Amino acid sequence: MLRLQDKVVMITGAASGLGAAFSRAAALAGASVVLADIDDAAGQGLAEALRAEGASAGYQRLDVTSEAGWETAMAAVRERHGRLDVLANNAGIALRGSVADCSLADWQRTLDVNLTGVFLGCRAALPLMRAGGAIVNVSSVYGQVGGAQVAAYCAAKGGVTLLTRSAALHGAALKPPVRVNSIHPGFVDTPMTQGALDLPDASGTTARKRIEGMTPLGRLATPDEIVGVFLLLASDEGRYITGSQFTVDGGLTAQ
Ligand code: NAI
After folding, report:
1. Tens place of pLDDT for every residue, the chain, 255 residues?
2. Do 143 and 161 contact (CB within 8 A), yes or no?
3. I want to staple 85 with a disulfide (CB 3.0 to 4.6 A). Which of 4, 7, 44, 248 is the partner?
4. Residue 202: closest CA among 194, 191, 210
5. How would you list the strands of the sheet with 245-248, edge to edge?
6. Cβ neighbours for 69, distance < 8 A, ≥ 6 positions apart
7. How far apart are CA 136 and CA 238, in angstroms?
């Protein structure tokens, strides 16, 4: 029996990075995967590639900030599958800026995608989880500790941390329960980080070198190294886990 055999799993931000790794892992674990994103070409391409490998996978365009978009996406899931077992609220953006220089537009956009998108996702998924389910919210170590240059990102990811706990308490009272947990990655080598990683700062050091120096395990994570926790939380192996924060950061926040 595969870990997600016959489960219907929807993943937002599925076209790239962590979302693509979660989608592939869920497909290999036997799930019917709904890949949701705004990058239609990459999302459709990955869904096609997974189908070519024998998996059950389909692409659904979804801007997570759109209430109407969630209604349309969930109507499509209901129509095709009749239910949803797992939702990974993974879509996110990272705009840099300290509390002193973050523009209101960047603040608002970050909260819209990284926090409101997660709220809309949890709310939209619950009616399709009447047979129970699991919601996995992708927060960050920056939802647990501060980073001076990522004020809006920290505010949004910190919001996801406690929204997860609130939703978990609601979900625990449902019969059968819906479990809700958050994952807190440290630095992961994905398109989100890659753009900035290899640019040297004034002293000639790259962000990659600085992160490697800060991280006890001495390197960034690969997306596949976050997959194990996702599969645990999404599958029945995690059936007694709810309202929990799973940090996967190479020891970064242990210091
Ligand atoms: P990525 O940039 O590789 O992928 C993000 C995906 O989200 C893209 O496919 C993008 O099209 C999609 N997306 C963006 N806005 C969207 C919207 N409004 N609606 C639907 N989809 C949208 O990023 P990565 O690194 O894979 O990040 C995934 C999640 O992991 C994010 O929530 C991020 O904040 C979080 N994270 C990433 C870390 C890292 O170091 N890469 C560390 C900690 C957390």
Report:
1. 899 999 999 999 999 999 999 999 999 999 999 999 999 999 999 999 999 999 999 999 999 999 999 999 999 999 999 999 999 999 999 999 999 999 999 999 999 999 999 999 999 999 999 999 999 999 999 999 999 999 999 999 999 999 999 999 999 999 999 999 999 999 999 999 988 888 888 888 999 999 999 999 999 999 999 999 999 999 999 999 999 999 999 999 999
2. yes
3. 7
4. 210
5. 56-61, 32-37, 8-12, 86-89, 133-138, 178-185, 245-248
6. 61, 62, 63
7. 11
Confirm whether 153 is a catalytic residue: yes
Q: Is the pTM of this model over 0.90?
A: yes
Task: Give, using CA atoms, the residue closest to atom 3 of ligand 1.
Answer: 17
Q: Is 90 in the pocket of ligand 1 (CB under 6 A)?
A: yes
Six-digit token string for 83: 């239910």
